[in-house]
Amino acid sequence: QVQLVESGGGLVQEGGSLRLSCTASGRAFSITNMGWFRQAPGKERVLVAAISWIPNTTYYDDSVKGRFTISREVSKNIGYLQMNNLQSMDTAVYYCAVRDGTTDDRRWRGWGQGTQVTVSS
Question: If pLDDT is split at 50, 70 and 90, which confidence band does 44 have?
């Protein structure tokens, strides 16, 4: 079982930056992948970035490519999403989730409470 806590959101002006953190805790888990998702009002939840734990292969949605960077500290079970050149359309609640290598279940897991990112124009 793994529990995730997102942090680092806030209010930022267009062009500004934020760094989100995702801290995993629990017992008997092994992160194989971590993803960052966002959900804007009236929109579906979408995957914006993902990283494999080892090796650190990354994926970015086209909407954030070149602006966001996903990273992780393997030994600390912490993932980050560095968000640069934020735009108003990035406004959303951001969630992280993981895939757990201790199970064959490939579902994204964790689903913390999310952290609000608001970008003012």
Answer: very high
